[in-house]
Amino acid sequence: MKSTILLTGGAGYIGSHAYLALVDAGYHVLILDNFCNSRPDVIDRLGRITGKPVDHIEGDIRDAGFLSRVFADHRIDAVVHFAALKSVGESVVKPLEYFDVNVGGLVTLLGVMNAAGCKRMVFSSSATVYGIPDKTPTPETAERRAMNPYGQTKIDGEEMLEWLQASDPSWAVGILRYFNPAGAHASGLIGEDPRGTPNNLMPYIAEVAIGQRPEIAVFGQDYGTVDGTGVRDYIHVDDLGHGHVLSLAKLLETGQGHLANLGTGRGYSVLEVIAAYARAAGCELPHRIVDRRPGDVPVYCARTDVAADLLGFKARHTLDDMCESSWHWTQSSLSDGA
Ligand code: NAD
Ligand code: UD1
User: For the segment 169-188, what is each residue's pLDDT rounded down to a tens digit?
Assistant: First the structure.
């Protein structure tokens, strides 16, 4: 019988792509989202892509009564937990909201899962837990250091899950630390959909390419990198989705938890990303060097051997794939008013 997976935050950027990967792998998936950072029409779009109805339920992970009813009404075998707030800058301004959703919401969800006897979870963590790493490519054994409230909530989540597994070995959690997710599904129907001014590089470039913004501000050209600009390990969101399928399969098969980076192991500078996007969009992308962004890290790059050895994970998509699919999504979302 097919396992049933509760996908929290399944209408969001990474969650919607993971939905497709999980359905493709044969799981029955129930999306739970409160749409605080996504649009309800993502559900219809997922249905258009799969050609099947999408099981979903609107609600908040902080609502224990609601969650208990979801677990009473469905036989859930595992949870893939994406629902969280994710803006670093906003977390500095509103730390309590970040702790409430990212830590409080996780406590509530785990309590309900425990009571229901559902003890398998894949957890969205982030390379941000490494702070400014001593070493790149960065291994999973590197020290965790919070640079801001958002990063602290991910460290708190990881530690809570580790203590939970230590207290009760029948729990098994896959903690996945994503590097820089980018790109979109080939259909052009789903993708990253930031509200207001994008904080992250790729969606900002997309808005310059489509003519919504005049130029890209490049944050510093005096780092000790290939061309002086910041280097990141960009990973295609479809590869991330596949990583979740592998993590989940491992948990269900072995009953053992794991912790792995999800990246490509290869970093690209800001100027290299702009050049790749310009190729994809077939136009010049105006940019200007400005001061460093406070708190920025010179280089983030993943050690990928744990994900490869433990999960059999290898990112398949290139930076060009990420730019081309992002461009396709940007054009189609503009033309159909998404
Ligand atoms: P997103 O904002 O697009 O998706 C998160 C989804 O969770 C949204 O649909 C939102 O409506 C939902 N949600 C938020 N709070 C909720 C609540 N209280 N109850 C129910 N639903 C709620 O973000 P994303 O980029 O898809 O990120 C998904 C996960 O991956 C997050 O945990 C994030 O911290 C983590 N992550 C993201 C990145 C990144 O760069 N995008 C990098 C590393 C880790
Ligand atoms: C951001 C988050 C981090 C999160 C990661 C993945 C911050 C401070 N950190 O980091 O917590 O885990 O995304 O989602 O927000 N850049 C420009 N101009 C821009 C935007 C970015 O030059 O307009 C540069 C940055 O200086 C950096 C690179 O592009 O060198 C990537 O930036 P960004 O997309 O914001 O990702 P991270 O800095 O890795």
Answer: 999 999 999 999 999 999 99
Instruction: For 216-243, write each residue's pLDDT tens digit.
Output: 999 999 999 999 999 999 999 999 999 9
Residue 317: which of 152, 154, 146, 185 has the closest Cα?
Answer: 185
**Considering 19, 98, 130, 150, which one is annotated as catalytic?**
150
337 pLDDT exceeds 70? no
> At CB < 8 A and 24+ separation, what contacts does 105-108 make?
105/60, 105/61, 105/62, 106/61, 106/81, 106/157, 106/160, 107/160, 108/61, 108/62, 108/63, 108/64, 108/67
Which domains are assigned to the chain? Answer: 4-181+235-264 (3.40.50.720)
Strands 78-81 and 120-126: parallel
**Nearest CA residue ID for atom 15, ligand 2:** 88
- What are the phi and psi torsion angles at 259 (to 5°)? -135, 125
In Å, what is the CA distance from 117 to each residue of 56, 58, 113?
22, 23, 6
Q: Using the 8-state DSSP alphabet, how is residue 217 labeled?
A: E
Distance 88 CA to ligand 2 centre (A): 10
- Sequence-distant (≥ 6) Cβ neighbours of residue 212 within 8 angstroms: none
Which residue's CA is the nearest one to ligand 2's atom 2? 88
Closest CA to 6 of 78, 89, 58, 86: 78
Whether 150 sits among the annotated catalytic residues: the reply is yes
Question: pLDDT tens for residues 105-156?
Answer: 999 999 999 999 999 999 999 999 999 999 999 999 999 999 999 999 999 9
